[in-house]
Structure formats: C-alpha cells, structure tokens
Specification:
Helix content is 4%, strand content 38%. By secondary structure, the protein is mainly β.
C-alpha cells in the first residue's frame, strides 16, 4: 500500500518546495508515455484559529490545459483535471466514506461526499461551505490550491479532533476525458476500466509532526 506522510505544523504553508510529493505515476489502463508529470502535496496546519485545516497543493506539467466547464459541480473531469479524494476516521472504525475534490484549470470544482460513486451528496446538503480554491497557470504548468477547514472536516467525518491518531486514506489523480488522456493515480487501482471511485485502493496518509 502506498504511504504519504502528512506533516502537521503550526503555520500556514508558504513554501511547498520541501513538502513530500505524491507522484501520480500509476497508469494501469495505459498511456503513461502520453502523461504529464503530476503530483500532489498536503500540509495540515494547526494554527489555533480559522486557518486550521488541510492544505492541498496539486501540480501538473501541462503548459496548455484545456478547460471548458464553468458550472460548479459540473463535469470538470472532462477537462484537464486534477483530483484528490480522501477520508478520515477514528482508529478502529471502519468507514469508506470520502470527499472528492476535482478541479479544472479555471478553478471550477466538483466536490461531493459518500461511500462510492453512487449516492454522493454535495457540500451544501451537508451544511458545509465550499472550500476556498485558487489556480495558477505558469510557464512550467498549472497548479491548484485547496483549503479544507478543520471545522468542516470534523462535521463531515464526525471527528472530535484531527491528530496523529486520525486514520487518513486517499488518492491523487489526473485525467482529461474529453481529450482521451490517460487516467493516472498515485495509489494503483485494480479495475478493468478507469474508475477513480475505488476507496478500497486508497493509499495510507500518515499524520506526523
């Protein structure tokens, strides 16, 4: 099982250069030779205020991403799209529910919660405000920044706290269905056809200080 060490800090991340990278390099359905280098990074900041929470950084060396979807919770997966799916729960608890956060290069996102592909619900149905997202398109590629407040995490996953004992599972992805681009993931998925909604293949994300 893939493992990623999620560092817990007391400050908001300002420099991602020294943060561990989760490389999206599994292409079980082929196309690795056509893939753009992509990776994800995570930081959990315990600042003691409203800035406490999970910080997500996604980067792809795609210099000319094509994105057409402009509707929130629309089909961003058809565009140049990077995604992060994750679930959190107390140790000893069996829970396959997870959040999926998907973004195109316009910063238009799809966010929902559930146990699998079907029966998922959007954040507003949970009484959760949409997470802040920003996108930067540069000469070397494009990147997405997402902040998931700790209060939202606690409410969604029913947690009293997020600490080193919290079980975190997840996966990073890159796709572009409209362009027939390869489907890449950080943690390999065993399935006959592309399917990112497979929490049983999530990698382990270990919170550490």
């Amino acid at each position: 099982m893939k493992q990623y060490y999620l560092k817990m800090t007391d400050t908001v991340p300002s420099d991602w250069s020294c943060v561990e990278r989760a490389n999206v390099d599994s292409y079980v359905w082929g196309g690795a030779e056509r893939a753009y280098k992509t990776y994800g990074q995570l930081i959990y900041a315990k600042t003691g205020d409203e800035k406490t929470g999970l910080y997500i950084h996604l980067f792809c060396e795609e210099k000319h991403p094509v994105s057409k979807e402009k509707q929130l919770d629309g089909m961003v997966c058809m565009d140049s799209c990077m995604e992060f799916f994750f679930g959190m729960h107390e140790a000893g608890v069996e829970d396959l529910r997870y959040l999926n956060i998907e973004s195109n290069s316009l910063g238009v996102t799809f966010m929902s919660f559930g146990e699998g592909r079907h029966g998922r619900v959007f954040l507003d149905a949970l009484g959760i405000e949409r997470f802040p997202v920003s996108v930067n398109i540069g000469e070397d590629g494009w990147e997405v920044f997402v902040f998931v407040p700790e209060n939202s995490i606690k409410k969604i996953f029913g947690l009293s706290d997020v600490n080193e004992n919290t079980v975190v599972m997840g996966n990073f992805y890159k796709c572009d269905e409209n362009a027939n681009a390869p489907f890449g993931s950080w943690a390999p998925i065993v399935a006959p056809a592309p399917d990112f909604h497979r929490p049983e293949y999530f990698g382990k994300i270990i919170i550490t200080k």
